[in-house]
């Protein structure tokens, strides 16, 4: 057992389960489905890998259901835009699951320009006894057939196949940063730097433009859309965040083009923290509704903020992710790290929030107890089934044993994408090209 | 990572003199800085921002967020430098001498003009490949964006791989997509409408209802079989 003096823990200790190395490609998005049975990852090479949780067996009480690879497919390929003479990256920016309606699973995946709806289904039977084909699949001469038989279904090894069902293309001039499925399950939205479009799942050649912040003259451009999401219950409500640190809540019933917001969330600038980089660090990289729909959480460069939908003038909670970087902003501007876009997630009960940092660290904040913890996702520092040890960054003065100093942090190891199981304490953390899945310790 | 107070290293791409990093900059513990916004930006930060801006604009498809943030930061820096009496002579990077000259002018107008021209270039590039522009006024609800682009008639010659979706090109999209399940497959409950099909034997002994997916597959098989039966060519 650990003998650390630092005993801050969130809920229970976390056990490290497996480390799944997904080839050499960098993971660009991670998402659990609505039941938590499936976990999807997208990578820079345009591939999607889906993991499925094992059924829990009575024989192995200590092994909670673990995640194994269920399906892998190439979602997007690199494309070439002939009009602009440039390549369109195949990197998967976001994956969003649809709620399950039948035996098949459906998910949306998007790169910079095109959204695709994928169907993932199982096949464990195949037809045998064709009339016109023999057992090897060769065509038979119809003249030789004297009797007809009815093909029958015979069991076969389970095969999981992914097929593209819809392709929603050519609706975005700028880079898509977000997709969000509406609670009506009939529509979804896709957001790029300047516009947000509303789609019906059945219609691929047309979409409605619901937000457009492109100025008449591009030289007047001072703000872009950074993230957008539908309200989890109200199908007419959505929010979008901007590079200036603002969040706008819009109601689609108000007008067809939601350029005028219903609510506007912005925290006044703290004059003591003002610098030339104030705007950059205020740029919101992710916005997420709580499961309850009462709150939104935003991530900017140094903090995570929780906002009450009923209070627009300031957040109700602010959590410092890595405030020790505040004195390093100039260097981080120079090496472009200041532009990194971190995501943030709620746990199933909205009581804990999680976000990533550098050096493969990620942070969790318990909103009730106000405790926080820093953990690390790396093979060197944790063995399978070991309890994760809390980490600490030394900001000055004497560095204790096991602490790491700010200058020793590895800024190339950034945790931008994390996901939390919808109901259990299972988290997925993407560290560059590795996926870590952590579970609550089984007592 | 830069350490505090160290001189910047000479970079190979540019032939600028090594500029001392303004220590005032990196140390917020400095009383004057902590209490009030920094009065004057160092010229190195200014140059850095100019370089970033230029680098961003040189990309074939700039990251708009990055570009906007750098431009806004540069405006702030320039605004703080304008009232300063003596600006240290800023060596112009070889990549953009004219731009550096423009930026040396201490008036906002000059900066705005150069920024404007750069951003306008960007918008011209964007304008070429856009679908029909949304109207400035509120048009009829639900104007479509993803449809055809009739104004780009001359560019149709580029062929099916063009960036814009033409009416004819729509069909091409679906060629390799299985669209036989277009009808309500997403949201339909386990279908009762579909004929159970002529299957026999183990099908009946097992659960009476087949999976919708299996029914679809069966339909495929049956439709495919029918297609095979019809001999190709005219007349029968």
UniProtKB/TrEMBL annotation, chain A:
Please give the superkingdom of this protein's source: Eukaryota
| InterPro entries (UniProt xref) | PP2A_PR55, PP2A_PR55_CS, WD40/YVTN_repeat-like_dom_sf, WD40_repeat_dom_sf, WD40_rpt
Q: What is this protein called?
A: Serine/threonine-protein phosphatase 2A 55 kDa regulatory subunit B
Which organism does this sequence originate in?
Answer: Sapajus apella
* Gene expressing this chain: PPP2R2B
Q: Which GO terms describe its cellular component?
A: protein phosphatase type 2A complex
Family assignment from sequence similarity? Belongs to the phosphatase 2A regulatory subunit B family.
Q: Name one GO molecular function term.
A: protein phosphatase regulator activity
Q: Which PROSITE patterns match?
A: PR55_1, PR55_2
The protein's UniProt keywords, in alphabetical order, are: Repeat, WD repeat
Which SMART domains does the entry link to?
WD40 (SM00320)
Q: Which Gene3D superfamilies match?
A: YVTN repeat-like/Quinoprotein amine dehydrogenase
TrEMBL record, chain B:
**Signal peptide coordinates:** none
Q: Which GO terms describe its cellular component?
A: nucleus
Q: Which organism is it from?
A: Sapajus apella (Brown-capped capuchin)
Tell me the ranges covered by the SERTA domain, including all copies. 38-85
Mind telling me what this protein is named?
SERTA domain-containing protein 1
Basic and acidic residues bias locations? 197-207
Locate the region Disordered: 189-211
What PROSITE patterns does UniProt report for this protein, alphabetically? SERTA (PS51053)
């Amino acid at each position: 057992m650990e003998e650390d003096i630092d005993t801050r823990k969130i809920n229970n200790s976390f056990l490290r389960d497996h480390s799944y190395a997904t080839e050499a490609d960098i993971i660009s998005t991670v998402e659990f489905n609505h039941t938590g049975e499936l976990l999807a990852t997208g990578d820079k090479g345009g591939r999607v890998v889906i993991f499925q949780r094992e059924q829990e067996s009575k024989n192995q009480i200590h092994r909670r259901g673990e995640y194994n690879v269920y399906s892998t497919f190439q979602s997007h390929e690199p494309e070439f835009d002939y009009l602009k003479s440039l390549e369109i990256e195949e990197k998967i920016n976001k994956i969003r699951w649809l709620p399950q309606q039948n035996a098949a699973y459906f998910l949306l995946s998007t790169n910079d320009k095109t959204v695709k709806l994928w169907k993932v289904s199982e096949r464990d039977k195949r037809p045998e006894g064709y009339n016109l084909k023999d057992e090897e699949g060769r065509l038979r001469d119809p003249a030789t057939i004297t009797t007809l038989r009815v093909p029958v279904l015979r069991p076969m090894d389970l095969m999981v196949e992914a097929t593209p069902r819809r392709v929603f293309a050519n609706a975005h001039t700028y880079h898509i940063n977000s997709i969000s499925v509406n609670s009506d399950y009939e529509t979804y939205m896709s957001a790029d730097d300047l516009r947000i479009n509303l789609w019906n799942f059945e219609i691929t050649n047309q979409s409605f433009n619901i937000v457009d912040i492109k100025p008449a003259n591009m030289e007047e451009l001072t703000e872009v859309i950074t993230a957008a999401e539908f309200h989890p219950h109200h199908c007419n409500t959505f929010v979008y965040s901007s590079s200036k640190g603002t969040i706008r809540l819009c109601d689609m019933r108000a007008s067809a083009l939601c350029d005028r917001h219903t609510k506007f969330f912005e925290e006044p600038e703290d004059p003591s923290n003002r610098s030339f980089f104030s705007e950059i660090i205020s740029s919101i990289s992710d916005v997420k509704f709580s499961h309850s729909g009462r709150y939104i959480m935003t991530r900017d460069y140094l903090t995570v903020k929780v906002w009450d939908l009923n209070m627009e003038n300031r957040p109700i909670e602010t959590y410092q992710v890595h405030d020790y970087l505040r004195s390093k902003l100039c260097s981080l501007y120079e090496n472009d790290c200041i532009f990194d876009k971190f995501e943030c997630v709620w746990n199933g009960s909205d009581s804990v929030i999680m976000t990533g940092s550098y050096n493969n660290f990620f942070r969790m904040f318990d909103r009730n107890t106000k405790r926080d913890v820093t953990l690390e996702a790396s093979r060197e520092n944790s063995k399978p089934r070991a309890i994760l040890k809390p980490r600490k960054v030394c900001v000055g003065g004497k560095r204790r044993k096991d602490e790491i100093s700010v200058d020793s942090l590895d800024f190339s190891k950034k945790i931008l994408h994390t996901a939390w199981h919808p109901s259990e304490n299972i988290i997925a953390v993407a560290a560059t090209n590795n996926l870590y899945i952590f579970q609550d310790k089984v007592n | 990572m830069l350490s505090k107070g160290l001189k910047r290293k000479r970079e190979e791409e540019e032939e600028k003199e090594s500029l001392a990093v303004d220590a005032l900059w990196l140390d917020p513990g400095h009383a004057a800085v902590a209490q009030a916004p920094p009065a004057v930006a160092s010229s190195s930060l200014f140059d850095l921002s100019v370089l970033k801006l230029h680098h961003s604009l040189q990309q074939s498809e700039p990251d708009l967020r990055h570009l906007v943030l750098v431009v806004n930061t540069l405006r702030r820096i320039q605004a703080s430098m304008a009232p300063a009496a003596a600006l240290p002579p800023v060596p112009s990077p070889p990549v953009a001498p004219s731009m550096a000259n423009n930026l040396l002018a201490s008036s906002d107008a000059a900066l705005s003009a150069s920024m404007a021209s750069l951003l306008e270039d960007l918008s011209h590039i964007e304008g070429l490949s856009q679908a029909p522009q949304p109207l400035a006024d509120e048009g009829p609800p639900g104007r479509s964006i993803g449809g055809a682009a009739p104004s780009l008639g001359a560019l149709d010659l580029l062929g099916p791989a063009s960036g814009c979706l033409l009416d004819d090109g729509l069909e091409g999209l679906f060629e390799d997509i299985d669209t036989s399940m277009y009808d309500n497959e997403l949201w339909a409950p386990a279908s009762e409408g579909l004929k159970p099909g002529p299957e026999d034997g183990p099908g009946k002994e097992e659960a009476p209802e087949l999976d919708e997916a299996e029914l679809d597959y069966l339909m495929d098989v049956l439709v495919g079989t029918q297609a095979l039966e019809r001999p190709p060519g005219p007349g029968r």
